[in-house]
Specification:
It holds the Pfam family RapZ-like_N. It is a single chain. This protein has about 290 residues and is α/β, with parallel strands linked by helices. The chain is built from nine helices and nine strands.
């Protein structure tokens, strides 16, 4: 019998993309079981091992007050059996969740006879504690299905490789803070290329903007300090069996400074052996 090496629990808000995430994991070779209560996870694991599956993904949602305690208990039991158990949590803004649910023409499973938003409020409260235990939190507010797939593949494509995996996201403060970042840095202390006429129409992906941003003495100091901080976090994360780190770098519009610095930080992390996905959340919105 093949020993199951990893189980990924996909959970989070209704409409945040649990089903899409499950399809991506299935393409990566995971045996996927959708919509099961936490109490059945061990039974599914036994079935997966009997069928000689090495990687399992289960999709669970919050339907009762016992959700958190039962799920944590089941995962701890699996870890004692030597199975790597990780939680992928998906969320999005209330506005986007309501719009998606209305487009699907489905009531929220926890809304009862109340407003749709009441169901989301109840679900957020039920999931609050499990979100805090998640290994990876993804905010799908501004992600299409292809971008979501890219983020999931970067995190789970090679579970045997070990080490730390990181996503580095650029964003614009004018569009709001990312809600799924472990670390957020404000780069508005750097001179803004927007005020240089020949650089304004370009982005941080263009060489003139990149050179302008990287030529600032504070840019190099920032990258050096972040190198040191990420090195400390890498040791701590791996010691605690945490393998995903999300870093968000922000400037005013998410077009120049944060984009250039996200690319630079991604390069430095890769040089240290960290698997990195660089994402530019707001590039192209202006």
């Amino acid at each position: 019998m093949t020993t199951l090496s990893e189980i990924v629990v996909v959970t989070g808000m209704t409409g945040a993309g649990r089903g899409s995430a499950a399809k991506v994991l299935e393409k990566l070779g995971y045996y996927v079981v959708d919509n099961i209560p936490p109490t059945l996870i061990k039974a599914v694991v036994d079935t997966a091992e009997a069928s000689e599956f090495e990687q399992l993904a289960v999709v669970v949602d919050a339907r009762s007050r016992e959700f958190f305690s039962r799920l944590v208990e089941e995962l701890e039991d699996l870890r004692e059996r030597g199975v790597s158990a990780r939680i992928l949590y998906l969320e999005a803004s209330d506005e986007v969740l309501v719009r998606r649910q209305e487009a699907a023409r489905r009531p929220h499973p926890l809304s009862r006879e109340e407003r749709l938003m009441d169901g989301f409020d109840r679900e957020r409260e039920l999931l609050r504690r499990i979100r805090g235990r998640a290994d990876l939190v993804l905010d799908t507010t501004n992600l299409n299905v292809h971008q979501l797939g890219q983020r999931i593949r970067a995190a789970f494509e090679d579970p045997t490789s070990g080490g730390l995996r990181a996503s580095v996201m650029s964003f614009g403060f004018k569009y709001g803070l990312p809600i799924d970042a472990d670390m957020v840095a404000d780069l508005r202390f750097l001179p803004n290329p927007y005020w240089v006429d020949e650089l304004r129409p370009l982005s941080g992906l263009d060489e003139p903007v990149r050179d302008f941003v990287r030529s600032q003495p504070l840019s190099e100091q920032f990258l050096e300090k972040y190198d040191e901080l990420v090195a400390i976090l890498t040791d701590g994360y791996l010691r605690e069996d945490q393998h995903f780190l999300s870093i968000a770098l922000g400037c005013t519009g998410g077009r120049h400074r944060s984009v250039a610095m996200a690319e630079a930080l991604g390069e430095r992390l890769r040089a240290h052996g960290v698997r990195v996905l660089v994402v530019h959340r707001d590039l192209g919105r202006e």
